């Protein structure tokens, strides 16, 4: 948790994403902030990583019903429904840090 380690939210995000690929929900649980806050922190972390020669890798959300992949989506949050079949059964995007 964040308070136990005396680190900032972004430092904690960097630590948990360094060796694994996680959804915003999983990151939220690991870092101790709300899922809505995670996406804002990820956007800021992405800029910081670029200056350090790393990058935030985003594996896009996917529709479970028709298989549509949200490749062109620029927002990091979870989409609400599939534009192809209108299903709300979506696998959320996953995030990791790569060099």
User: What fraction of residues sit in β-strands?
Assistant: 15-25%
The helix tally amounts to: 4
CA-atom Rg in angstroms:
14 Å
For the termini, the CA-CA separation is 25 Å
One letter per element, helices H and strands E, the order comes to HHEHHEEEE
Q: Tell me, what is the CATH class? A: Mainly Alpha
| Overall pLDDT score | 89
Summing up helix and strand content along with how strands pair, one would put the structural category as: alpha+beta
Tell the overall outline: globular
**Largest sheet, spatial ordering of strands:** 1-5-2
Helix content: 25-40%
Task: Give an overview in words.
- The chain is α+β, with helices and mostly antiparallel strands and 99 residues long.
- The protein has a single domain (2-98), classed as Arc Repressor Mutant, subunit A.
- 38% of the residues lie in helices and 16% in strands.
- The protein contains 4 helices and 5 strands, in the order ααβααββββ.
- It has helices at 2-5, 9-17, 24-31, 35-51, and strands at 22-23, 55-59, 62-63, 90-91, 94-98.
- The strands form 2 sheets. Strands 1-5-2 form a 3-stranded antiparallel β-sheet. Strands 3-4 form a two-stranded antiparallel sheet.
- The protein is globular and about 45 Å long.
- The protein starts with a helix and ends with a strand.
- The relative contact order is 0.21.
- The model has no long low-confidence stretch (mean pLDDT 89).
């Amino acid at each position: 948790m964040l308070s136990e380690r005396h680190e900032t939210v972004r430092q904690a995000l960097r630590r948990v994403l360094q060796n694994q690929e996680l959804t915003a929900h999983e990151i939220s649980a690991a870092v101790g902030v709300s899922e809505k806050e995670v996406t804002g922190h990820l956007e800021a972390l992405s800029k910081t990583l670029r200056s350090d020669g790393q990058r935030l890798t985003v594996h896009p959300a996917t529709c479970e019903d028709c298989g549509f992949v949200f490749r062109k989506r620029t927002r990091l949050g979870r989409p609400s429904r599939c534009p192809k079949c209108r299903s709300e059964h979506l696998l959320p995007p996953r995030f990791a840090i790569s060099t």
